[in-house]
Amino acid sequence: MKYSMAMVWAWVPMVLAMSVLLAGCEEPVYTPRPKGYFRIELPEKAYQQYNSSDCPYTFEYPVYGKASRHNTFFGEDVADACWLDIMLPELTGEIHLSYKEINADNSLEKLIEDAHKMAYKHTVKADYIDESVISTPNGMGGMLYELGGNAASNIQFYVTDSTKHFMRGSLYFGATPNQDSLAPVITFVRTDMLHLIETLRWE
Fold this sequence. Notes:
Strand 10 and strand 11 (165-173) form a beta hairpin. This protein has one domain (47-202): Protein Transport Mog1p, Chain A (3-Layer(aba) Sandwich), CATH 3.40.1000. With 203 residues, the protein is an alpha+beta fold. The longest helix has 21 residues, at 179-199. Strands 3-6-7-11-10-9-8 form a seven-stranded antiparallel sheet, with helices on both faces. A three-stranded antiparallel sheet has the order 1-2-12. Helices cover 27% and strands 33% of the residues. It has helices spanning 5-24, 108-120, 179-199, and strands at 47-50, 57-62, 66-69, 72-73, 76-77, 84-88, 93-101, 126-135, 141-149, 155-160, 165-173, 201-202. The chain starts with a helix and ends with a strand.
């Protein structure tokens, strides 16, 4: 059977159409998306005063925080009634504050060494620890520890007047430690902890 050129050219559009249809039947190619995290809504910054007739300190803490006495520490009763938890329910975080009076049983050197040990206890999970000297307008000094990586506590500090009063603080979250997802919240609460330190006064 002979075909004329006109007949051959008549088939060309049909062949092209079939090629496009067959190409469209191939399995779609999926590109994996980069790992992402839920957007965290951070509350507005505002502070309130903490005062206690039983404890020799006062400071300002976030209005989205709830201060309560810390009665136990790792399952044991706390002898000192001036330990506090500042709960941050919107951020599923807590700032633990422990207070000690400097005396013969608790020398300044011992309290500083204990605070240093507590910070470096997290080096198992921390990628690094940055230490910054604290010096407040109220004449107090101390140290700020910032721990990188998936440490249980990313920020810790101690502050003291070097003669009578000593306070240690640490930040914890009620979630599996993940610095990538928690980074905005850690930065946000860091500002609150520095504000607490700067407004801390001994009574």
